[in-house]
Design brief:
The protein is an alpha/beta fold. Helix content is 45%, strand content 13%. α3 runs parallel beside α4 (114-127), α9 (223-239) runs antiparallel to α11 (272-284) and α10 packs across α11.
Amino acid sequence: MKELRGVLTAMATPFDENGGVDLDGARRLAAHILEDGSHGLVVAGTTGECPTLTDGEEIELLQAIRAEVGDDALLICGTGTNDTQHSRELTQMAADAGADASLVVVPYYNKPNRAGIRAHFEAVAEAVPELPMVMYNIPSRVIVNADPELLGELGRDIPNIVAVKQSNADELGPIEGLAVLAGDNETFCDTLEFGGAGGVLVASNVASRRMRAIWDAAQAGDLDRARAIDNELRPLYTALGVTTNPIPVKAALDILGLASDRVRLPLVRCDDEQRATVRAGLEAVGFPVAH
């Protein structure tokens, strides 16, 4: 099993002029992010606009990126939905298409109780027991929260559940038996300070090299240096939160000439004011931005 550690970029999904998945653009972006310093990629996660990707598009995207970056690159595929059977099927499809791990979100909209959350993860994990799973806890989008006690129980009781992407900053901390991955740019350094495994990050779509430097400094025991780099990047983190993710990071990619800013409805592109905020955030952390 490949290590689920380090700077794991939640990759944006490029779209073409007709609204289809731009596979050539995805290949280029994936290669750039890895060459720039990321340890791995999360394909078809929230930042990848998974709610509006069909299963076929998601698998085709994963296959195209795998073909581009080779077998050694770490690729995690978002396969969680609010339908347990659908999640089981999509996880199997991702495993067959070359994913190294799945990212499975706590079911949204249905508002399952604690027993339902547990049963969901048990069922999805059981469908592909050989594929490592990263649970994804993000109550700001899901509404329900999987607390650290429940996450720890699942990690202890289900062998292929190995990590959690923790996007509840109020409960960020070590969880025995699980690799804890920061779910937000802002909590990456905090996660490394308590010995966490890394982060699934949005800013690394454009700033992999700098976020890798945070990781490298922390692994070398130089937490002051890690925190200093993190503080330098704070204006970018803030700018990428100007409106709903992934709208701002797609604007950043477009400004830097790395990928189009096209998104799928019901998301819309940044308006002029939001785009100016993103541009200012890039400039504030030293990106050369043409006007």
